[in-house]
C-alpha cells in the first residue's frame, strides 16, 4: 500500500472512543472459542471485530435455546463452517479477543432476543473496531481465505543478480473498480445484499476479502491491493451513497440471508 506512513497510522491506529461490547461475543482466545455474555465481564468496553457474510441456502452454525449453554462452554472449530473458521483465524492473527457473528451471537429461535438484537445492528457494526467482509463467499461453507480467482501470467526478464542471468516475474491484471467501496459494489456475492451495504457503510474500518483481492476502507480513504482504488474521503458524497444503495437493493431482489 502506497499510503504515506503518517496516513497509515491515522487509518489503522486512530483511537476511536470505546463503546460497550454487544450482548454476546465469541472469545477466540479460548480453546475452543466460546460464546460470552458480556454483562458478566468486568471489562465491557473492549474492542471487537464483526463479521459481514452471506448465510446462503445452507444454514450456518446457529445459537439456539437448546445449545446456548453448550456454546458458552465452547464451540469446536471443526463444527464451524469455513467462513467462521476463517473469521476466527483473522481475529486471532490481528491479536483481537472478540468477534461478533450474527448466527452465533443472537439466539436464532428466540423471537424477543432476535428483535432486541436486530434493533441494535447499527451499534454492533458501527462500534466494531473492524468489520470483516467475507465478500467472496456465497454461503458459510465457502470461506474467504482461499486462492484468488484472477488470471495472470509471467514474463522472463534479464536479471544480473540471478545465477541464470534471467528471472521470472509474475503479474496480474489491474481490476476495474467501478465506484467507492463503501457506497457501491466490491467483488463477490456479498456486494449484492442490501443489509451488507448498510454494514459496510456503518463500519469505521472495513476489509473486503474478495474473489480477486483485498479491499479496505476507513473514514480517511479507500484502497485495494492493485492500488487502482485510491479514493479519498473528500470524494464521497450523499449522491454516491444513494446511487450505491439503489444499485445494491436492485441486485438484492428480495433474497434472504
TrEMBL record:
What protein name applies here? Heterokaryon incompatibility domain-containing protein
Region of interest: Disordered: 232-257
A Pfam family assignment:
HET
Q: What is the lineage of its organism?
A: Eukaryota, Fungi, Dikarya, Ascomycota, Pezizomycotina
Q: Which InterPro entries match?
A: HET (IPR010730)
Q: Out of the domains of life, which is the source? A: Eukaryota
Sequence ranges assigned to domain Heterokaryon incompatibility in this UniProt record:
48-199
Question: Where is composition skewed (Polar residues) in this entry?
Answer: 237-257
Amino acid at each position: 500500500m502506497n499510503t504515506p506512513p503518517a496516513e497509515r497510522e491515522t487509518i489503522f491506529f486512530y483511537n476511536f472512543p470505546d463503546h460497550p461490547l454487544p450482548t454476546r461475543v465469541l472469545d477466540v482466545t479460548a480453546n475452543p472459542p466460546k460464546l460470552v455474555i458480556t454483562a458478566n465481564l468486568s471489562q465491557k468496553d473492549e474492542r471487537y471485530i464483526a463479521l459481514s457474510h452471506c448465510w446462503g441456502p445452507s444454514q450456518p452454525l446457529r445459537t439456539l435455546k437448546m445449545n446456548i449453554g453448550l456454546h458458552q462452554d465452547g464451540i469446536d472449530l471443526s463444527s464451524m463452517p469455513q467462513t467462521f473458521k476463517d473469521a476466527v483465524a483473522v481475529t486471532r492473527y490481528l491479536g483481537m479477543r472478540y468477534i461478533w457473528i450474527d448466527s452465533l451471537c443472537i439466539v436464532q429461535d428466540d423471537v424477543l432476543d432476535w428483535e432486541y438484537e436486530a434493533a441494535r445492528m447499527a451499534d454492533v457494526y458501527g462500534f466494531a473496531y473492524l468489520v470483516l467482509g467475507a465478500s467472496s463467499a456465497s454461503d458459510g461453507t465457502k470461506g474467504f481465505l482461499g486462492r484468488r480467482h484472477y488470471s495472470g501470467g509471467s514474463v522472463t526478464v534479464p536479471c544480473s543478480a540471478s545465477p541464470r542471468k534471467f528471472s521470472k516475474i509474475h503479474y496480474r491484471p489491474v481490476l476495474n473498480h467501478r465506484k467507492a467501496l463503501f457506497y457501491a459494489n466490491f467483488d463477490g456475492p456479498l456486494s449484492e445484499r442490501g443489509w451488507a451495504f448498510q454494514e459496510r457503510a456503518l463500519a469505521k474500518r472495513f476489509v473486503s476479502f474478495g474473489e480477486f483481492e483485498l479491499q479496505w476502507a476507513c473514514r480517511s480513504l479507500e484502497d485495494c491491493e492493485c492500488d487502482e482504488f485510491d479514493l479519498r474521503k473528500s470524494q464521497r458524497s450523499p449522491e454516491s451513497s444513494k446511487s450505491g444503495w439503489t444499485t445494491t437493493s436492485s441486485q438484492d431482489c428480495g433474497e434472504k440471508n
